[in-house]
UniProtKB/TrEMBL annotation:
It comes from Rickenella mellea. This is Uncharacterized protein. Residues 13-34 have a biased composition (Polar residues). Residues 12-64 are annotated as: Disordered. It comes from the Eukaryota. It holds the Pfam family OTT_1508_deam. InterPro entries: OTT_1508_deam-like (IPR027796).
Length: 510
């Protein structure tokens, strides 16, 4: 294993930094968040403050394609939790085909492919109706008929129900996850006097609770295992009502909502965002549906819906990677050196501390490795972990392999030589490792004649392990990217120590 291997750095050093109490002169909120597994973060959550400097999101707030791709990736998820999706979009040069490359945390199922094809057809029908309405309105004396408008609205509703059919298990899981907590919160809240608070917020919260109970009763009162059309019609009605009431609450007084969450037991002190997150997740399927339906009414992009859609499934991939280095002191020293730290007494003391903590973090790795109790001076036997390549990295690697090889393929179906648009839609914000890998890839692309580089939405800044790099099947590029990736991570960890005074910067030579 090379001393520049980033896997031990991500899976041990950066993770172990977050397992101990932060230094006294920094707040816990300023540290990167960590997770052993997928978080249930929704795509609309804002990034969390972090002392690890991450690049700002490159997504334009006015760009419809990124919002559409992120929303579509979310709607592909049909399981309750621990499922992720990433996808890319290619418009072929002949303007006849649209290709969606999709990767999920497990192999993409026929159900997901069928859902995408059906949704694309429905969106195309809505776009055609909308264009007919617009064309009629341009002729003097002609206006869109009530019947035509009614047909469009009916088709929209049918599309929303089709989306709900696909995503209903995810919605049910999110509603049931903290339904009891929401009940306890509301009954505690209503016992208090709120006459001095914003009456609109008070009334809205009452309406939200009533509509939430209607959703809860509907999904828990199913006598038969068959979910027929009537079930989904009613599910759509009650969930749409909850969405309508939640919108003004979630966009209202954020401080008041946070204080209610803390004062009446839905969140611990300092975690007042939890009520917001819970309600947001319960209705998020309609937020994502709105963004996807917006494509049918877009003057810029609705033309895509008249093209044939082809789906290319990217298989999930597991890789064995090293989890720890032969001598942690040597490895940590190389990390700090890559990050620009001065090799003084502070350097070696902090390296010793980091090496010590890295030895103990293996006790919770998924492969069941035991806690290590040897001295940090001892040589540690190298071990490997098996981890999945994250979905957005699978998409990046797929297009890298195709376009770097520049192999001429027959232009048909899901095969094309046309580069994709430079944005990968993600069902969840990329983790810290993915964000920095994309950053390293972008830096390398400045030195190599790559035909593209990809953007994603802002990272959630979670250190999620195990993290494994994708296979690019391009040895020179892969080694170069690995080197730059290691340096990027090293700078981040060094910057963290610079900010708390546990490392000094190396003086630049004149």
């Amino acid at each position: 294993m090379s001393i520049l291997d980033p896997h031990p750095l991500l899976n041990n050093l950066l993770y172990s930094t977050q397992q101990r109490a932060p230094p006294s002169n920094t707040s816990k909120a300023a540290s990167p968040r960590t997770s052993d597994s997928d978080s249930d973060s929704d795509s609309d959550e804002p990034p969390v403050n972090s002392s690890f400097p991450l690049a700002a999101s490159s997504e334009s707030e006015t760009d419809e394609k990124p919002k559409f791709l992120d929303a579509l990736a979310n709607l592909c998820i049909h399981e309750g939790r621990r499922q992720e999706t990433a996808l890319s979009l290619t418009l072929t040069s002949d303007e006849r085909r649209v290709i969606l490359c999709i990767a999920q945390s497990t192999d993409v199922s026929d159900r997901v492919v069928g859902f995408l094809l059906d949704l694309w057809q429905r969106l195309g029908e809505i776009a055609e109706m909308d264009q007919d309405n617009w064309a009629n309105s341009q002729h003097p004396g002609k206006t869109p008929s009530v019947k035509t408008n009614g047909d469009t609205l009916q088709k929209e509703r049918e599309t929303r129900i089709a989306i709900l059919r696909h995503c209903h298990l995810k919605v049910i899981w999110r509603v049931l996850k903290r339904a009891k907590d929401f009940d306890k919160f509301f009954f505690s809240w209503k016992e208090k006097d709120h006459s001095s608070e914003d009456p609109a917020m008070v009334d809205t919260l009452i309406n939200v609770f009533v509509s939430f109970r209607a959703v809860f009763v509907h999904i828990t009162s199913l006598v038969s295992s068959a979910m027929d059309e009537a079930y989904f019609d009613e599910f759509d009605r009650v969930l749409r009502e909850l969405h309508a009431f939640s919108d003004p609450l979630l966009n209202g007084d954020a401080e008041l909502l946070a204080s209610w969450s803390e004062d009446y037991g839905f969140a611990k002190r300092g975690e007042g965002h939890l009520l917001y997150k819970f309600l947001k997740k319960c209705v998020s399927v309609y937020d994502h549906a709105d963004k996807v339906l917006g494509l049918a009414f877009s003057s810029r992009f609705s033309f895509m819906l008249s093209m044939d859609l082809h789906i290319k499934r990217i298989p999930s991939t597991q890789r064995n990677v090293a989890s720890k280095f032969g001598c942690w002191k040597e490895y940590v020293g190389s990390v700090f050196t890559a990050g620009g730290a001065a090799q003084d007494k502070l350097f070696f003391r902090t390296a010793d501390i980091e090496a010590k903590h890295a030895l103990f973090v293996d006790k919770t790795l998924p492969n069941g490795t035991q806690q290590i109790t040897r001295s940090t001076d001892e040589m540690v036997v190298e071990s490997a972990i098996t981890g999945p390549v994250h979905c957005e990295c699978l998409i990046l690697a797929h297009h890298h392999r195709d376009l770097i090889r520049q192999s001429a393929v027959t232009e048909s179906g899901a095969e094309t030589n046309t580069p994709p648009v430079d944005y990968i839609g993600c069902s969840k914000p990329p983790c810290y490792g993915c964000d920095r890998y994309f950053n390293a890839y972008s830096l390398v692309s400045k030195d190599k004649p790559y035909p593209f580089h990809f953007l994603t939405r802002g990272s959630n800044k979670r250190v999620i392990r195990p993290f494994v790099m994708p296979v690019l099947e391009d040895g020179d590029s892969e080694q170069y990217i690995q080197k730059v990736f290691f340096e990027v991570l090293g700078r981040d960890l060094a910057e963290f120590h610079f900010s708390v005074g546990t490392l000094n910067r190396r003086k630049q030579s004149p």
